[in-house]
Amino acid sequence: MLHAIHPETHGPLGKPMAAAVQACVHCGFCLAACPTYKELGQEMDSPRGRIVLMKQVLEGTLPVADALPHVDACLGCLACEPVCPSGVQYRDLISPFRAITEKDRRRPLLERLRRWMISSTLPYPARFRVAAWLGKVGKAFAPLMPRSMRPMLELLPANLPPAQPLQPFYPAIGQRRGRVALLAGCAQQVLEPDINAATIAVLCRNGIEVLVPPEQGCCGALAWHIGDLGSARKFARQNLRAFPADVDAIVTNAAGCGSGLHEYHLMLAGEPEAERAESFRHRVKDVSAFLANIGLVAEFPAGEKCRVAYQDACHLANAQGVRDAPRELLLAVPGLELLELADPHLCCGSAGTYNIDQPAIAARLGAAKAQAVLDSGAELVATGNIGCMTQLRAHLAGRVAVRHTMQVLRDAYGK
């Protein structure tokens, strides 16, 4: 019985957490799907084991410090959800648990500094561009830095692409078929702004007007997944104000961002904006799902043969249930042979800031995913998330090109 998991004890997040715990029958189907259980081989590093630990903490029978090493090792990839016969909503437990227990943590100084550096730069493109430039300079001194600070520098690309400022409005080409608002993302605007350019180009070619609300901010997923509830709510409120109601959908082109927008009802549970957040999240669509639903009308020219592997971003396939749509779009490209990767359910190890917070596990997962790409014989790998792209590029080291699904489509149309 969950005597301590009540709203009056843990606030409005208590109810969804209790429901998630109660739904688990400890059958163990999740173990085979869990990347960290595969890597670490311990029951407490499986979804089933973590649910037990979180339950005990919430009931007050286990100190939070005893559970944290295992909870921290969770990717939040949600690979456990599709295989769960009981329908456990693990997402309703893991991020809320991190949020309500953050106040009880005692983080070392360097860890607090690293978290501050990430949270004060990455969600703000202008700041992040400056920080990335400084980090590029600082790479030369990486061996002299504390080990925990090095992964941030190692993940930075050798060169940053030039900024591509976005206009607030892009007209449809040809007959107007719809109108959407685009979430531009944070790190994506710095690391690969061409993803937004490609997304807008593909939408417009297919008769869709695109708005890019200038008042929008970070989706809040980064803060939410590391337990910073205050920042997550701030970003959620900003976007609720920024995005208009007179659009057919709010489209995202980063799986992690889309997943974050879909969880605004949790971030703002018990807040005055809760009802609005619930309505908002149902309007959010990944761009691949939106385009697959309305259909492509712009014809592709004849193209050369190309073997393309598709990598499922966890927060697209598991969190949003979008698996078929990107594949349908890619298969529409003449000459494109679509390849599947071995063990597609296994996370690449990016998972927000996971490859910074848990670099050893992330590196093993990244190496395994890169090997799966190489084994497929693909000339190019497509995916739907900037974090996955960064991780794949780091581990493929130029052996196979890495592109966003929208970039593949835009290039097939011809720039």
Structure characteristics:
415 residues; alpha/beta; Fumarate Reductase Iron-sulfur Protein, Chain B, domain 2; Rossmann fold; 5-stranded mixed sheet
Q: What average pLDDT do the residues reach?
A: 92
Query: Can you summarize the main beta sheet?
Result: 5 strands, mixed
Helix content: 40-55%
Number of strands: 9
Structural notes for this entry:
This protein has 24 helices and nine strands. β8 (380-383), α23 and β9 form a beta-alpha-beta unit. Among the domains are: 7-104, Fumarate Reductase Iron-sulfur Protein, Chain B, domain 2 (Orthogonal Bundle); 300-413, 3-Layer(aba) Sandwich (Rossmann fold). The protein has helices spanning 7-10, 14-23, 35-40, 47-59, 64-72, 80-83, 91-101, 109-121, 125-138, 150-154, 187-191, 194-205, 221-225, 229-242, 255-262, 264-267, 274-281, 287-294, 314-317, 324-331, 354-357, 359-376, 386-396, 405-413; strands spanning 169-170, 178-182, 208-211, 249-252, 284-286, 306-310, 336-340, 380-383, 401-404. The strands form two sheets. It has a five-stranded mixed β-sheet. A four-stranded parallel β-sheet has the order 7-6-8-9, sandwiched between helices. By secondary structure, the protein is of the alpha/beta class. It starts with 6 loop residues before the first helix and ends with a helix. α2 (14-23) packs across α7, α4 packs antiparallel against α5 and α22 packs across α23.
